[in-house]
Amino acid sequence: MAAVAGNLGAVAGASLNSNVLVKLDGGSVSSSAFLGRKLATGGSIKANVKHQGVVGKRRGVVAYVAPSTTEKSVNEPKKAAGGIAEGQKGGQCFGVFCVTYDLKEGERPKTWRKTVRIAVSGAAGMIANHLLFKLASGEVFGQDQPIALNLLGSERSRDALEGVAMELEDSLFPLLREVNIGIEPEEVFADADWALLIGAKPRGPGMERADLLDLNGQIFANQGKALNKVASPDVKVLVVGNPCNTNALIALKNAPRLNPRNFHALTRLDENRAKCQLALKAGVFYDNVSNMTIWGNHSTTQVPDFLNAKIHGARVVDVIQDEKWLKEEFTPRVQKRGGALIQKWGRSSAASTAVSIADAIKSLITPTPEGDWFSSGVYTNGNPYGIAEDIIYSMPCRSAGDGSWELVTDCEINDYLRERMKKSEDELLAEKKCVAHLIGQENGYCDLPEGDTMLPGEL
Ligand SMILES: NC(=O)c1ccc[n+]([C@@H]2O[C@H](COP(=O)([O-])OP(=O)(O)OC[C@H]3O[C@@H](n4cnc5c(N)ncnc54)[C@H](O)[C@@H]3O)[C@@H](O)[C@H]2O)c1
């Protein structure tokens, strides 16, 4: 943890043990048992600061004030959860986010809602570097919604994680009430209302696809176990790290306490890409494209559904009237968009992925517009499309805006779609066999379909 910022900068360089009481600027500073961040001076501070009665004393301070009407104020003693030592929940509080101020009742921002706690893995990576600032700005959860960020990194990205937290400090986001960092999922996921699982190992040179499934699968098995143990019982889990459908299944299977319906694999980027291509072809602005389903796996077997999609409320097939283009150009273009982007600038999509994560969250916390739907990789426990049960498969969903979703059950499926949907389903069933040892099943074997269908460069 870093407990050094603002007024506390004066003590930088000191090494404070836990349970020390420090008087500072007339306020009282009490410490908790957080681990200290190494300071530039080589010292470390083990203090969680409680500074009273200084609201408005320096510009921007009020922006970080916690208590308000939120019940998750860092001023309140933290209850132990899931065997996590008190003071370690959520990871280690960082810098200015360790400073909390007691506000007088009348000074609390009454319009703010209960703090939402968001755990983000791979927080020092490229996607998170875009996403975290969207979350903190209020763009995703709303301008009256304070948030706490619990950031999970890997051993290798420990320093980078602090760099990210420093940038969050310097951004002075009014709604950002806490930033906690750590490398232990059981600490970082504590009390999480949302878990955005982005961090994963990239595919190394010469690495077989099966090896990657196993390597990343172990990460998601551990993270599933940690979520099961310490996250909020209603935590919404969005898996981004590839292969995201199977990783989501692994996390779900390792979290029996949690509702399987709360696990999602991100296919919103694919949906957005498909909408963009249809808009381009039809010569319309892309917000006129609706009802876009991505069926199946987030791989090149995914099926962008032009049969049920609409432009200006009319069927795409009636507006574009070029079936050959829809089948032979549109479909592979969406399936391989990730690779095309990498060829252009040498790295995988990060900003547009972050946008699509924001979109995916907003789709679950906002009522879906009448007649429309969104795509998400969801648990196939009962569906009218004949998709195998017990996998994570992208399908059309609607939400009442409370974090839950319902399947759209009346899509038209023709032979063209059915054949391709089956291929993607077969791929997911094969991936599931490969990771049987990680989801409590026996007799696993890895016999993946011919060809490399994972998105190029994204693995
Ligand atoms: N589903 C999608 O639409 C989609 C789109 C783009 C990328 N992705 C995937 O998202 C993932 C992240 O992409 P990126 O560009 O941010 O990668 P990145 O390499 O920039 O960042 C990944 C970060 O995760 C960290 N990490 C690795 N293992 C970890 C672990 N066990 N716990 C916590 N952190 C860990 C790494 O140290 C790194 O900082 C990749 O798997 C990529 O394939 C998915």
TrEMBL record:
The EC number(s) this enzyme carries: 1.1.1.82
UniProt GO molecular function: L-malate dehydrogenase (NAD+) activity; L-malate dehydrogenase (NADP+) activity
Annotated GO CC locations: chloroplast
Major location (coarse): plastid
Protein's recorded name: malate dehydrogenase (NADP(+))
Main EC class the enzyme belongs to: oxidoreductase
Subcellular localization, as worded in the UniProt entry: Plastid, Chloroplast
Gene3D superfamilies: Lactate dehydrogenase/glycoside hydrolase, family 4, C-terminal, NAD(P)-binding Rossmann-like Domain
Entry keywords, A to Z: Chloroplast, Disulfide bond, NADP, Oxidoreductase, Plastid, Transit peptide
Family the entry assigns: Belongs to the LDH/MDH superfamily. MDH type 2 family.
Domain Lactate/malate dehydrogenase C-terminal: 267-437
Chemical reaction(s) catalysed: (S)-malate + NADP(+) = oxaloacetate + NADPH + H(+)
Organism: Physcomitrium patens
GO biological process: malate metabolic process; oxaloacetate metabolic process; tricarboxylic acid cycle
Domain Lactate/malate dehydrogenase N-terminal positions: 116-264
Top-level taxon of origin: Eukaryota
